[in-house]
Write a structure and sequence with these properties.
By secondary structure, the chain is an alpha+beta fold. It has three domains: 1-61 and 305-330, no CATH class; 65-155, Translation factors (Elongation Factor Tu (Ef-tu), domain 3, Beta Barrel); 160-296, Rossmann fold. The chain is built from eight helices and 18 strands. A seven-stranded antiparallel sheet has the order 5-4-8-2-3-7-6. Bound molecules: flavin-adenine dinucleotide (FAD) and FE2/S2 (inorganic) cluster. FE2/S2 (inorganic) cluster (FES) binds next to loops.
């Protein structure tokens, strides 16, 4: 593990130490990697000490449970929202930017588990809202489930650079989310977590997504300044501009650059496919060199626990980096 390049998203949380500690593969702790000295860069509670004190067990392993489908609404033929009963405690944990869960139908095997972002966590109701784009096997299988999903979570690494979006560390900042397609789901969750103490704007490309969904979850339609969100949508507080642009269109990209220069954002989240994360991310960086950038974690994620290796790549130093757990260090 490249200590100076990546952090572990679960380090120091209720899910740490995790399965990787059991086999001497902790991403952070040199003792839990089999070394006889402590030379980690971790500045939180000592992971090794927690492991020993906790009888060398995984702390709070994420356990599957059945979540009742309270509501299912189609916005497009291939875009459906599920409202799931998860309980208040789970909803609180799921309210942080970057949260996602694994879902499958009760008749499906583990092979059908798929990662889905939390779009809204309603703590009062003990529910989460998820938006699913129906593509192929796993997402089609979800549609077959009439009553309850098997759910596992909460997982935290849905956004790379999520540190810049931590509500407790973000005050009176100007934040812009640029989202395309199903990327609007994590953008909506993050915006809700941040809107009370910051100004949050949106640039949305609604290709493959429905403006009705945006209206239901962000309160208004169209290109305009939104001064206040609608309370009946469970969203109160100030949001700034919601602008609809086509991210592939040159003129619209010029509009985006104008907006970036005018508002001089502190943080920009690009929540879209890798193509747009790269191209729009580079445009944002060119326009605002000092900006903090966050983006969707688009790696193939299968276990979310750093075990299966589906999300891993080998970096220049030859280390295997597991992107379901790793956060690049800023
Ligand atoms: C952290 C995270 C959050 C996500 N949030 C949402 C969401 O809120 N709504 C939503 O509709 N989709 C979301 N996805 C993507 C979703 O998991 C995939 O679209 C889904 O697994 C596709 O399964 P399929 O069998 O229907 O299609 P497939 O034909 O298997 O795949 C279709 C596309 O999805 C990609 N994909 C397949 N499996 C995975 C996987 N395990 N991890 C990542 N990408 C995969 C494929 O590479 C391909 O590009 C998220 C993915 C990740 C990693
Ligand atoms: S998804 Fe299994 S190791 Fe990352």
């Amino acid at each position: 593990m490249s200590y100076n390049t990546y952090d572990c998203i679960d380090a120091g949380t209720e899910n740490c130490p995790c399965y990787l500690a059991l086999t001497g593969d902790c991403l952070i702790c040199s003792r839990l990697q089999g070394k006889d000295c402590c030379d980690c860069n971790w500045r939180g509670v000592c992971i090794y000490n927690e492991f020993v004190q906790g009888n060398r067990k995984v702390s709070n392993p994420r356990i599957e449970f059945e979540a009742k489908i309270l509501e299912k609404k189609f916005y497009l033929d291939d875009l459906v929202i599920f409202i799931l009963d998860v309980g208040k405690g789970f909803a609180i944990k799921a309210s942080h930017p970057g949260s996602y869960v694994f879902l499958r139908g009760r008749q499906s095997s583990h092979f059908y588990d798929l990662p889905i972002s939390v779009m809204r966590a309603d703590v009062e109701q003990g529910t989460i809202h998820v938006a699913v784009k129906i593509i192929a096997l796993k997402t089609k299988a979800l549609l077959e489930e009439p009553d309850r999903f098997i759910l596992r979570g909460v997982y935290r690494n849905g956004i790379q650079g999520v540190g810049a979006l931590r509500p407790e560390k973000t005050k009176e900042k100007k934040i812009l989310f640029i989202a395309k397609g199903i990327g609007v789901a994590p953008a909506i969750l993050a915006a809700n977590a941040l809107r009370f103490r910051n100004k949050v704007d949106f640039v949305l490309d609604t290709e493959k997504i429905s403006t009705e969904l945006i209206s239901d979850y962000l309160g208004e339609k169209g290109n305009h300044d939104v001064k206040e969100m609608k309370e009946e949508n469970g969203i109160i507080g100030e949001l700034g501009v919601i602008k609809y642009l086509t991210l592939n269109n040159e003129q619209d990209r010029r509009d985006l650059v104008r907006l970036l220069k005018k508002e001089n954002y502190d943080c920009v989240g690009v929540l879209a496919s890798d193509y747009f994360v790269d191209t729009i991310g580079a445009l944002v960086r060119r326009t605002l060199p000092e900006v903090k950038l966050a983006n969707s974690n688009n790696f193939r994620i299968c276990c979310g626990e750093g075990i299966c290796g589906a999300c891993s790549f080998v970096n220049e130093e030859g280390d295997t980096i597991r992107m379901c757990k790793c956060q690049r260090r800023e």
